[in-house]
Structures are given as C-alpha cells and as structure tokens.
Amino acid sequence: SYLSASEPVVTFGLGPDTKVDSAEVHWPSGTRQKLAHVDLDRQSVVEEPR
Known about the structure:
Elements: E1 22-26, E2 32-36
Antiparallel strand pairs: 1-2
C-alpha cells in the first residue's frame, strides 16, 4: 500500500545439514544469481546484479 515497505530479509533453516555448497536467488526481475561458499550462522547481504 501507499508509502509502505517491508524488510527484505529471508531466513533459511537447514535441518540437520551442516554445510551448503551453493545457493541460488531468483529475483523478481527474472535474474538468477548463484552464490558459492555460503557461510552458515551468518547474515549475508545479497544485492541483485544490475
């Protein structure tokens, strides 16, 4: 709605897994971005490529 915003934060749970080889972001524009070497128990900033 008018002048509203939501915080663009996503939280993932891995269950019993202890590592992630890679992650892929599907942006609303249709762009896909693959992330390698994803650190666990950390907050990461990911920006859509231009």
